Amino acid sequence: MNPTRLLPFAILTVLLLSPVLLRAQNLAGDEALSKVLIDGEDWQLVAEGFGFTDGACADADGNFYFMDLGKGTAIQKISPTGQITDVITNAPKCSGLKFGPDGHLYACTQGPKKQLVAIEVPSGNLTVLADNVQPNDLVVSSKGYAYFTETGKGQVTIVDRKGNVRVGATGINAPNGITLSPDQGTLAVSEYRGTNVWVFRVNRDGSLDAGARYMTLRTPVGKADSGGDGSTTDSVGRYYVTSHLGIQMFDYTGRLGGIIAKPTNKGCVSIAFAGPDHQYLYACASDKIYRRKTQAKGVLFFRPPAIAQPGK
């Protein structure tokens, strides 16, 4: 087993046993927003006139994909230079989109049926992977395991390349956003009606264990829930989670580094790194799409994780 896959859990153990020691040792490694945001760079409006945008994801070329759940019938993409085109027309309504290692676009459909499907691009041919489910959002690993949240059931469900469907984790308070660590050894799941981001170890067979509440989402004054929604990860292991307050950023130890203001006062439910070199954070903000350039770089989970070379 690659020892780096267990790193977050080793850190969690130290945190529980010696919190004072950890804080003292990690001060120099604080992951503040200044390491992500760029002075003078703010949110840029990319596209508008939609009903309700969701399903943020990216391909290898930096194209940004999304769907207008409010009034659209197509999965659309925005090129790094801003051109908008329809990718799949007459698509089912999708709340979550991610590319898999087979090049298909995996989707959590909301109508006319609730299913997990794989869509061939650009033909639009659709294969049902899981039926009679309640998928909200998903992530697909380079091994072809699709993990999706079933918010109403309080669980994460797994579908493998052979089409086998199994429960991966339960007991989460309205699980919503879902992402992986850069080495794909850890799965992170945000609570919509709670205040936690859970993490789970991803085993060789795709199963999940060692679940723990690892990050604490901040809540607005007077609200008990965080509204933890869509999430993504950057190449150094920082987690980004949309919420009522904004996009909350955590370092790989689970510590909050700061909250990035939403592009508008409307809800921001889905985010992804796309654009040139995947350094732009794109946001589905209700009826508009925004992006902002960052110092960070996104991760493409349909690719095998990079293996660090000795001495690097």
Major beta sheet summary:
4 strands, antiparallel
N-to-C span: 20 Å
CATH architecture label: 6 Propeller
SSE pattern, N- to C-terminal: HHEEEEEEEEEEEEEEEEEEEEEEEE
Please identify the structural class as seen in this structure: mainly beta
**What's the shape?**
globular
Number of strands: 24
Side-by-side strand order of the widest sheet: 1-24-23-22
Helix content percent band: under 10%
- The CATH class is Mainly Beta
What would you give as the CATH superfamily? TolB, C-terminal domain
Radius of gyration, whole Å = 18 Å
Domain module count: 1
Uncertain runs are 1-28, 308-312
Average pLDDT taken over every residue:
90
Query: Beta fraction of the residues?
Result: 35-45%
Our count of helices gives 2
What CATH calls the topology is: Neuraminidase
